[in-house]
Amino acid sequence: MQRQRGLGYAAALAGGTTLIGPYLEPAWLMALVVILYALILWKFFDTKYLAYTICALAALYGVGLLPFFVFATTLAMMVLGELVFQHGADDLNTYLYYIISTAWAGVLVMAYLHEMAILTIIFGIIAAVLLKVILLKYEDSLVIEGVGTAMTMLLIQELNYQADLQLVVIAVIAAFAFAYFAYRSKTADLSGLFSIALVGIILLVFSNPRWLLVMIVFFVMGSVATKYKFEYKKRIGVEQGQSGARGYKNVFANGIAATAAAILYGVFQDPVFVVMYVGCVATAAADTLASEIGVTGGVPRLITTLKQVPIGTNGGVTFVGELVALIGGFVVSVAAFLLGVITLPMLIACTLAGFIGTNIDSLVGATLENRGFLGNAGTNFLATISGGIVAVAIFLLILPFIPA
Fold first, then answer.
1. What own/partner pairs with CB < 8 Å and gap ≥ 24 does 227-234 have?
2. 3-state DSSP: the chain helix, strand, coil percent, rounded to 5?
3. Are 321 and 199 in contact, with CB atoms under 8 Å apart?
4. For residues 276 and 387, what is the distance between their CA atoms, to the nearest angstrom?
5. Where are the alpha helices (DSSP H) in 91-160?
6. Does residue 58 contact residue 10 with C-beta atoms inside 8 Å?
7. Are 167 and 204 in contact (CB under 8 A)?
8. CA–CA gap between residue 59 and residue 38 (Å, rounded)
9. What is the CA radius of gyration of the chain?
10. Domain spans in the chain, listed from the N-terminal domain onward
11. d(CA 123, CA 120)
């Protein structure tokens, strides 16, 4: 019962902070009160890590790095989230309750402070639940969850991006529906579910549904390629983990560069970010097909020396892998072209970029990854962002030759 009482007092702190915070100035004074209260929780109740989180958030608010709205909302989310996980299991239902509770926390704070920040709240909720599912097994991770959630909301608020409320609601429903389908079809685990949802919402809010469809084309191709000769790949020890289900590392490694391009396009409306987006996705598709299908294409050769290496060696390439890489980048680029996302010159640039990006992945794998400087996720990220940059470079090179 001691833990319940402690969380109850923490909830009272979150509510009291929201109620009196706007009237207690300067900010450092409010922060000091909250920190002193948190230290009492730490001393007398089993809420050590929650107390640390409260102190960290209060300190950020006190020195002016967090606006009060973000501070109060994050505080309320963390406390209510801990109440949910006090008796909840690590399953989808508990995370659903977590989302509902953090959503209520955000809405109540937003209503009291008369601040219309739906987009900020939504991204805060997704960041909170994603960090929770990733870090749940680490008892001391609550500070990272709290600060990460606050920084996410701060970023969205600082962007000051205006989106239609109806579009935001549709984006949330559509993104979570697709992510849930991926989870139920066992192509994504729980962390993958929320990662996919986050990427989907960003794409729908900052660009339009056609951009999400391009990403879905990659996801479907990647899922099919992952299942291709899965038992054979499992037998030789090169299968995707968890029976082919992909987690947050894979989603972010392959999608974060493209997602950043979508955000930049939404803010600046520059077509160069369209090319970068499709180039990143084309590279991710090409690399996934090269890895999942190419590994079944015989004995690979190391890209740096062309000497034969064992199957599954980082940087190893096969003719089949190179061929499907070209096809993968082409299919994504054609899909983007048919959807009206890119033009024909952009299609050429993105197809070539996908193929080049895949081989950059192999080069990085043969050098940095094999020497332990990078993991697979880091290699994939470098490859996708390189593919996006290469797509932009090729497009700008051929732009002068395009008839006006």
1. 228/292, 228/293, 228/296, 229/296, 232/296, 233/292, 233/295, 233/296
2. 75, 0, 20
3. no
4. 8
5. 92-113, 118-135, 142-159
6. no
7. yes
8. 12
9. 23
10. 2-159, 208-401
11. 5
* pLDDT tens digits, 333-358: 999 999 999 999 999 999 999 999 99
Count other C-beta atoms under 10 Å from residue 92's C-beta.
14
3-state SS, one letter per residue, for 170-189 = HHHHHHHHHHHHHHHCCCEC
Residue 316 β-bridge partners: 302
Which pair of structure tokens corresponds to residue 275?
A: 């090319």
CA–CA distance, 132 with 10 (Å, rounded to integer): 19
Length of the chain: 404
Residue 273 token pair: 């970010």
Helix (H, G, I), strand (E, B) or coil at 306: coil
- CA dist 100 and 322 (Å) reads 46
**Total Cβ atoms within 10 A of residue 32:** 14
Query: What's the one-letter identity of residue 323?
Result: L
Instruction: Look up residue 373 and give its two tokens.
Output: 């400087």
CA 190 vs. chain centroid, Å, equals 13
Encode burial over 168-187: b for 16+ CB neighbours within 10 A, e otherwise: beebbebbbebbeebbeeeb
Q: Rounded distance, CA 54 to CA 136, Å? A: 18
Using the 8-state DSSP alphabet, how is residue 317 labeled? E
State how far the Cα of 267 lies from the Cα of 176, in Å rounded to an integer: 24
At residue 1, does pLDDT exceed 50?
Answer: no
Maximum mean pLDDT: which of 162-171, 220-229, 275-284: 275-284
Whole-model pTM? 0.84
> Who's near 224: CB < 8 A, 6+ residues apart?
none
Tokens for 90? Answer: 């690590």
What does the longest C-alpha to C-alpha distance in the chain come to?
A: 75
| Joined tokens for residue 141 | 């991770």
Yes or no: say if 283 and 354 are a contact pair by the CB < 8 Å rule. yes
374, 364 in Cβ contact below 8 A?
yes
Residue type, 253: A
CA distance 283 to 299: 23
